[in-house]
Amino acid sequence: MARRRRDAMDWVDRAISFYKSAGREIALAEYMNPRGQFVEDEMYVFVLDSAGTMLAHGVNEKFVGKDFINLKDSDDKPFIREIVDIANSQGSGWVQYRWYHPTSRKVVPKVVYFDKIDDMIFCSGVYEE
């Protein structure tokens, strides 16, 4: 089933609600739990700090602590920098980029919704094939 943009917004809203009730440490750990409530098929939550460092990633814990500000998509678009810039200036928004789809094994359009709360940018994206 193709995910819709509304799904990405819902996942970010749920992640923020969980953070507000559970606290930072527990929330970040839960976002990285592969069998937890924030990872399902190709949907997951990732969290950046306000400078582009990965604080949590639903499918690759090795990303945590790494600086992603200069990461680019397959068209050389610095999409993490765009997310961080918009989040820091406007609070929330959407960024579209091209990314590898793990099921189809093709590079396809993906759009991520994000919302900044405190010093963290909560993100979730959907493939738009």
From TrEMBL:
It is a multi-pass membrane protein. It is found in: Cell membrane. Residues 5-81 form the Single Cache domain. GO terms for cellular component: plasma membrane. It comes from the Bacteria. Keywords: Cell membrane, Membrane, Transmembrane, Transmembrane helix. This is Cache, type 2 domain protein. It comes from Syntrophobacter fumaroxidans (strain DSM 10017 / MPOB).
